[in-house]
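Build the 3D complex.
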Amino acid sequence: MFVSATPDVSMNRRSSRTTLKLWASALVGLLLLAASVGCYDSATGDANIGDPINFKLPAFPETGSNAVQLFTEMHYQPSYRSQEEPRRLPPEGSVPITGAEVVYTSLADYNANPPKGGDSTLGQSLYNINCLVCHGAALDGNGPIMMGFNYNSALPADLRADGTRRSSDNDLYAYVSGGGRMGLALRFSGRATQSPMPEFRRLLTEQERWDIVSYLRVTIGQP
Ligand code: HEC
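Done.
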C-alpha cells in the first residue's frame, strides 16, 4: 500500500513540475517573441504579437504591482538614475543647518575673523584625495598629473614656496576655497576663474578646508 502510494505522489509532483517548466518556457518564448517581432507598449504593459496572440503584462502577478517590463538594454530600466528627476530638493532659499557660508569679496575680509583651525591628520587624508594629484605628496607642485603630460596651463604651485609659507591661515583657506591665488583674484574681480585648480568651496565643507589648511601649516611651517 505504502510502497505503491509513494511513486504515485512523486510522479504527480514530477509531472506538475514538468508542466510548470513547459508553461514557463512558453511564457519566456512569448516574451522574447514580443520583444523581437511584436509590439510592446511599455506604458500599458500590452504585448501584441498580432492576432490571435494578445496578452497583457504583468506576466508574473506574484512579483507585486510592477508590470514586467521588456527592455533590451539595462539603460532603459524603470529606475531613476542619480541626479535625475524626480529629486527631493530642499525648499527654495534653504541653508545648511550650519548656516550659509559667508561669501567674502576680498582677502582682507577673509582675514577679519580669527582662523577656525582644523585637524591636520584629517587634513592630510583630504589633501591626498583632493590635492596630491596636482601639488604632489611632497607639496612641491610636482604631482602625478605632471608626469609625461604636456601641461600647458598654469603649473600647480609649489606649496613650500616662501610666498605660500608667508600666507596667513585665512589666506590659505581663501586660496583653497577660491581655486588658488589666481582663481581667487579673478573671483574677487567678478570674473570666472581661469585657474586649473577647482574652487573647493564647491567641493569640500568649511571644516574640511580648515582641516587641509591645518595640514598645510603643519607641513610647510611659517617663516
Ligand atoms: C587640477 C590641479 C590642482 C588641484 C587638484 C589643486 N590645485 Fe592648488 N593650485 C593649482 C594651480 C595650477 C595653482 C596655481 C594657480 C593659482 O594660484 O590659481 C594652485 C595654487 C594653489 C595655492 C596657492 C599657492 C600660492 O601661494 O600662490 C594653494 C594654497 C593651493 N593651490 C592649495 C591646494 C589645495 C589645498 C588643494 C586641494 C584641496 C589644491 N590646491 C588642489 C592646481 C591644483
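The longest strand covers residues 46-48.
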